[in-house]
Amino acid sequence: MDFTSRAIAYCRPGFEKDLAAEFAARCAKSGVAGHSLATPDSGFVLHEFDAPLEEAQRVVSYDHLIFARQLVWVRESLEDLPEKDRLTPILAAINRVHGRFGRVWAETADTNEAKTLSSFLKRFMPHLERALHEGRRLVDRNDAPNLHLFFIDSSHVFICTSDPANASPWPMGIARLRMPREAPSRSTLKLAEAFFGLLSEDERNSSLRAGLRAVDLGAAPGGWTWQFVSRGLLVTAVDNGPMSESVRATGLVEHVRADGFVWKPSKPVEWMVCDMVEQPSRVAQLVAEWVASGRCRRSMFNLKLPMKKRHDAIEQARNLIYKRMSVSGRDWTLRFKHLYHDREEVTGYLASIKHG
Ligand SMILES: C[S@@+](CC[C@H](N)C(=O)[O-])C[C@H]1O[C@@H](n2cnc3c(N)ncnc32)[C@H](O)[C@@H]1O
């Protein structure tokens, strides 16, 4: 039995230190030793645990790691792949991994250097997929493990698996969303990704229904508002700036020119979202106040992070939210993720939970 195990988490290049700090925090909490290889701007962190795979998988999950776009578990590592036939050793390595796979992805880090491999991968993948089909290693089931081939370069690959219930559903953890033609700003993609990345399917179905009410603080020009109105929700858009004609034309938007830190709704609403550029601690307090006091049931919000000590800024926001929510008498959930469409910010989700 192997008493060490390795995970690879993909991230936006430049955030490796933050991701490694998260691995270290999870391991410290569980008393599991280990160390990270986190090369600056590499776009991934490799963490070695002094624990077998099953134990390491209990210590760290995809949801725990805010800065991870994807989390995969290393099963085999191949270096010095022969240029003339990479397929044979890769298939032999995959054959040493038990079970069948729901999906197979050839991946690299999200760096310019790694992207130069993309034409090689396009040529290589059909051969691999055909061989896996012939070997009956693929199965048409959503809950079957994902198989990831994470290429460092064309001669070095990690063969990894992930549990679809505990992983990003997108190749390379990158949410490739189509920019809706009518949406007024690209930041619409951020909220679209947050709905998929931070909510369960049940939560999406119950909270994004036509007729429910949403408040958008810092709404102009209306990319986030558009995500709601395109699903038939009614939006109060709070911003001193102008809202775009495309969202106003839906007839589902009331534009209020006011300070988002002061304005309050007359009745409770399902959603409050906040994209105002402000101190993370100020946004955290505002969001906690809305959910704790029952002004809204759920909130999606952006925390703009400082260049350094990003992890600390999130922890400070988390503590402020914890402090306010713990005296609210409500059950609640708080999640954060550094989404593909986030740059120097993370997206948070805070909601009160109803029972029964
Ligand atoms: C990043 S933009 C929002 C973009 C918007 N989410 C979208 O998708 O189009 C931030 C907005 O917050 C607004 N804002 C900043 N501080 C505010 C405040 N105290 N009250 C209301 N709006 C504010 C700005 O006017 C700006 O329009």
Write the layout of secondary structure elements.
Layout: E1 5-10, H1 16-30, E2 34-37, E3 44-49, H2 53-59, E4 70-78, H3 87-95, E5 103-107, H4 112-115, H5 118-134, E6 146-153, E7 156-162, H6 188-198, H7 201-207, E8 213-217, H8 223-229, E9 234-238, H9 245-248, E10 253-256, E11 269-274, H10 280-292, E12 296-304, H11 310-326, E13 331-337, E14 345-353
Parallel strand pairs: 5-6, 8-9, 8-11, 9-10, 11-12
Antiparallel strand pairs: 1-3, 1-4, 2-3, 4-7, 6-7, 12-14, 13-14
Protein name: 23S rRNA (Cytidine(2498)-2'-O)-methyltransferase RlmM
Keywords: Cytoplasm, Methyltransferase, rRNA processing, S-adenosyl-L-methionine, Transferase
Domain Ribosomal RNA methyltransferase FtsJ: 185-279
Describe this structure in words.
- With 356 residues, the protein is of the alpha/beta class.
- It folds into two domains: 5-173, VC0802-like; 188-353, Vaccinia Virus protein VP39 (Rossmann fold), CATH 3.40.50.
- Helices cover 31% and strands 25% of the residues.
- It has eleven helices and 14 strands.
- The strands form two sheets. The chain has a seven-stranded mixed β-sheet, with helices on one face.
- Residues 7-71 form the RlmM ferredoxin-like domain.
- Residues 185-279 form the Ribosomal RNA methyltransferase FtsJ domain.
- This is 23S rRNA (Cytidine(2498)-2'-O)-methyltransferase RlmM.
- One of its GO terms (molecular function) is methyltransferase activity.
